[in-house]
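Need Polyketide cyclase / dehydrase and lipid transport's 3D structure for a figure. Predict it.
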Amino acid sequence: MKYTVTMEIALPRERVVQLLADPEHMPKWLRGLVLHEPVSGVHGQVGTRSRVVMQTGQQEFEGTETITRREPVDLHGIASEVVVHYEREIVGKGMWSAARERFTETGPETTLWVSENEYRFSGLLMRLVGLLMPGAFRKQSLQHMQDFKAFAEHGTDVREAKG
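Structure prediction for Polyketide cyclase / dehydrase and lipid transport:
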């Protein structure tokens, strides 16, 4: 299963990628995050493997995230014509996924975020979920992007949200 979601954020691209790369901010915008801890490497750097635990309702998901691409490595002083790439793979029980994020400067104070997502399922239950509810994965990706946008633009913290 593959899909792409996009979002425009009313902040300079350099600020957007710096906020996204900072692990201290993850709980503020990544709804359902229980744990995100590097097992090897340095958070956000290529090759880093992290243990990730997410909670959605009564369902808990645990997997291993590996950063597969981050260009440029230095997120300061990025030339306006450079497209920032941040890619990762997550492996969990019955599932493999890849997220390929691209950040393009669309103006001095605006950033276009394009997120290409791919999922592969190996277990029978996960295959059924993928077949019966493909829209749920896209909806969740879009929710994470909207939550990040609200955090980046307005300081909104998902932990303080009602409902």
